[in-house]
Amino acid sequence: MIFKYIFLTISLALSINGLLSPLVPSEFYTYQLAIVPTEPDLLKIYWKILNGNEIQLELHCQTTGYCALGLSHTGGMPSSDMVIGWVDQSGAHLWDTYSRLRTSPTKDPQQDWTLLEAREVNGYTILKMKRKLDTGDSQDRPITNEPTFLLFAWNNADPVNDNWLYHSQNKQVAFTTLM
């Protein structure tokens, strides 16, 4: 019985400190959404509005490759605004991209997302980032109080030579308001 108590105490302490579960956000967020209800730990997004003109979000994805988040008015990849991030041997990377068609996104010449933190923990990639709600960039979708489609894609491989592998079936869509 004493061993069971010690084990439970240690497990609880590790969970509270975030050592067992990488799915604990790094700070308080106003909103959160588990993207796949049947697999709530597969993909989660946390977000909040900063100073009325910026959004900060934290994406938790069960992969050690890249994670992508897209903003779309149709729910599809064409004409969507995307951010793609990953962690590899050279460090953390975050690209502001867009897609005109259903093909690999193009890197936006104006990089509007700021990477605040990125790490891989226990098979998860965690990306913390922010950007202005309205960047003034024609490739970016303004974030308003209107519902929008959130596109998610991931791959278990990191991009090589600035090219990422197709996500295949690793994709999800959610519909929500971000404000």
UniProtKB/TrEMBL annotation:
Organism of this sequence: Brachionus calyciflorus
InterPro entries: DBH-like (IPR000945), DOH_DOMON (IPR045266), DOMON_domain (IPR005018)
GO cellular component, one term: secretory granule membrane
Signal peptide per UniProt: 1-18
Tagged with keyword Transcription regulation: no
Gene3D superfamilies in alphabetical order: Cellobiose dehydrogenase, cytochrome domain
Domain DOMON: 41-155
GO biological process, one term: dopamine catabolic process
Molecular function terms, GO-annotated: copper ion binding; dopamine beta-monooxygenase activity
Pfam families: DOMON
Protein name listed in UniProt: DOMON domain-containing protein
Alphabetical UniProt keywords: Signal
